[in-house]
Amino acid sequence: MIFKDNKDISFLCFGSQDWWYHNRGHFDFQLMRRFAKKGTTLYINSLVMQKPKLSEGRKFVEKLVRKTKSIFRGLRESDAGFWVYSPFLLPVHHIAWMRPFNEILLRFQLWFVMRKLDIRDPVVWVACPTACNIAANMKKSKLVYQRADCYEAYPNVDVKMITAYDLKLKAEADLTIFVNMALYRQERDQCKKEIFLNHGVDFDKFASAVQVQEEPLDIASVPKPIVGYFGALDEHKLDVDFIEKIVDVQPEISFVFIGKASPGFSSLSEKKNVWLLGQKDYEQIPQYGKCFNVAMIPWRRNCWTKAANPIKVKEYLALGKPIVSTRVFSEIQNYSDVMYLADTPEEFAECIEKALADDNPGRVAARRKKVQMSTWDSRAHIVLEELFNSSKSSAWRNKVNMVRGRPVIGRMRLFARWSKSVLRSLRAGYLDFALNAILAQTILIWLTIRDVFSSRRVECNICGWTGYDFYPNVGWGFNDKSVTCPGCGCLDRYRSLVIILWTRTKFFSPDTYVIEVAPSRKFQTYCLQQKNNKNYISFDINRFAMEKADIIQMQYRDNIADYFLCFHVLEHIEKDIRALKEIRRVLKPGGQAILQVPADWDAETTCEYSCPNPRNTGHVRRYGRDFAQRISLSGFEVSAVSVSECLSEGEIERFGLSREPVFLATK
Question: I need a labelling partner for 491 at 20 to 30 A (CA). Which of 66, 94, 592, 598 fits?
Answer without folding.
Answer: 592
